[in-house]
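Hey, can you fold this?
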Amino acid sequence: MIKNLKIYFSLFKITFYISAFTFGGGYIVIPMMRKYFVNDLKLISEQELLDMAAIAQSTPGAIAVNIAVLVGYRISGITGAVITCIGTVLPPLLILSIISFFYKAFRDNRVISAILKGMEAGVAATIVDLIIDMGQGLLKEKNWLLTLMAPIAFIASFIFNINVLVIIISCSILCFAQTYIKSRQGGR
């Protein structure tokens, strides 16, 4: 019972901390969760976290909340999912309540505007770090389709302005076809 309470408290504390002190959306949460849940506490593996991140991106809602709920569920079942959900939602709720109360003061404050601009640079650096880590994982798989898919998708979106939905559907079809072909070849 005490072990469960320690895990529940850790889940709440970590998700509350991550949610309170990370800016930039769900993709910033992933490296933070890797640091605490994979590297420090070793409660889940890196591959499990990446799988959960993929599921969190493909389900409706905020990625940060989705991945927190998945991590909580993986570690401690339904109770863990509820605790991590509360831990993730509570900081923005409190912060937005305070900001809305003092909206006029925050809106016109140059110092706060400058701080937020500085945070944008930190967010960009964290996202680049995540992309590099995920790219290294793809290269280790030695799968040419997956290795080439990310840069081609970027070029298609950024240079040729192809709709992201078309890119996602195309990538999904290619991965499905590759998996199907490999499963047929393995059956012989």
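Oh, and this one too while you're at it.
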Amino acid sequence: MSTVTEAVSTGIRVAHVEAVTRAIAAMRGRLAHPHPLGALAGAATFSPFHFHEVFRRITLLTPARFLAVLRLAEARRLLLHSTLPVREVSGRVGYASPGAFSARFARLTGTSPTGFRAQARALADARVAGTLWWAGTRRPSVAAPMLTLSRAPEPGSLVCTCLMPAGTLRAHPGRWAPSTGSPRVPLTAPPAGGAYAAYCMVIPAGARITDALVDETPGSLRIGSAELSVTERAPAAVRMGLRWPAPTDPPIAALLPLAAPPG
């Protein structure tokens, strides 16, 4: 690729990232309001189809699903830090029906809003200390894919990996484990082959769990994401960079259930 072509390609990507970042800022600023695709695309001076594709390529989610996980993340913060009843929390994050909100919350996180509130408060000031905290299991029908991270998580940190079928918010039960200091981290095997988005989250030793998984406190979480294809014949392998979260990263941690550390 020529220098000119590379510069044009880089310029286009920068413009795309800036457009997606503005759209996400608009979502965050007015979570309780609808954000039609046409309005988001118009602000970026893109056609709705083109904007939808650009947004999905950069974030691995569609605008509608990104908005849904933003609302979920804010709901979790309100449930932890306020005494607002569930019906008011649901209204603040854009749900007209508390019942619909509770059903959506439970479907995505595996627990009800009131159950999450109790679990999150039970964590109190619990901090990562290199111990197994939460683990999900699922009987696999294909071999587990393997991640090779750009940097080995430091010993004492907690590493979580999870898979979602491409373009969905259906996170399969993840794998929490203390860091071994190796850059190679196994994923939980998915139930079937197909296209997936893989995520890795690393909470450093000493960080509060709720800072990382609820409050999005800067410095409490490193993340990575990648697309991969899983087949039933051979386990997939994917390289993934770890970084501090950027504005275009969906708060995937909001999809993870909470559970009190073992006593």
